[in-house]
Specification:
The chain is mostly helical and 448 residues long. It is 65% helix and 4% strand. The strands form 2 sheets. The protein has a two-stranded antiparallel ribbon with strand order 1-2. It has a two-stranded antiparallel sheet with strand order 3-4. Strand 3 (187-190) and strand 4 (193-196) form a beta hairpin. Helix 5 (140-164) runs parallel beside helix 7 and helix 6 runs antiparallel to helix 15.
Amino acid sequence: MRAAILAKHIVWSTPQGRGLAEVLEIVTGCGLWLTLFTAPLAAGGVVHWGPGSTFSFHLYWFDATMAITLAAWAVYLSIKGESSLTVGCPWIAGGLAGLLGLALAGVPFSVQPEVALGMAARLWGAVLLYLFLVNYRPSALLVGSALLSSLVLQALVALGQVARQGSLGLKILGEPRLNSATPGISVIVLDGHRWLRAYGLTNHPNLLAGLAAVTGIVLIATLPKGRRAVSTVCLGIILICAASRGAWLAMGLGAIFLWVSAARGRPARRTDAARLRLPLGAILVGVLALLPRFNPTNRLEVQSLRAHVEEMGQAFGLILHHPLLGVGANCYPIALGRVVSPAAYAPYGVPIVHNSVLLAGAEMGVPAALLLCGLVVGPLVLTLMGRPGSGEIGAAAGLAVYAVLGLTDFSEWASPGFRVVFVTLLAIWATERQLGAYSGKQARKEGK
């Protein structure tokens, strides 16, 4: 495992253990690969339980692999006794720690403390994952192969679901039961015919398309030409089969960000901007082709827009009544269900505001919303202001897509799988920027 390069660290000494340390290093690498592979799938919970009808706690495949990875890494550090821990970018680590602190502070005042405590536990896992990644510094091959494998699997499942217009019988992998005739299943109505939107191994087409968009643009920015083509094709399949307008819009704006930041990159990397023209051009053409679906005169479109405006009003109402600590982490539907009548929204339950910033503010207070905005916008601004490398550009482009998606949906805040992807991008960006700054200092020293 690679040592940290910054001075701010924690060091401790323990006896050496070469054989066991090598085994633990292999377990850590394999566990991280499986975590990055399974998190974008966001498949159904492996274990789930709950004390009541309003709460069900889930453990996912990536929860198990992440726990194994972090445990193996901790034992490895205690055996080697020569490793140091860095926080990477202090303001990113502080932002994640701040979200965790707000979640814990709000537990006693939440509408359902056990739910808030469960979310706090997940945020604690996110902080640990960030610290692990900025110190372990996984290779581009490990990260790229895991995310690409996940993207390919989702594309194959999505293509099969649309072709069959139903489930593929992959319930053991978390696939939901899908039937275009079932009320509540996401479909597109064309000429009176209901066409199923692909779910993949997620709980909704928007979640499938959102995760694919975030990971896909990172792969487009960082993979070599052949694998880049594979990722572009798989991403296109998912975006078409899921038919998520928010994901297409996010990809279009993310592609523009990627193009601009690649052109501003280091001299040795500027040729990447030219190599990205084909996949980014294809993405922008897809966005333009989907524009006819943004029809403000369509009855369903008008109904959807009115619903979103109503949801935003409900979220602002909760924020005004609980501005500092919110209603409790992950407690939004429970709190809203005590203000409005759930019967009016039967059988789906009270709606969750389709905006991650408002959702975070309602659940954990205005400070949480500001911290989330800082964690997303900060890397984007610093990337555009500097001369980044390809790794930093790819992570920032993924965060740009994440930011746009967060304005149209809530999964970016509420989905545990999305949270793992988000923290991974923050860690990659922090590490790449750290290495870039270190290389710049070394170059200046050599120049003198």
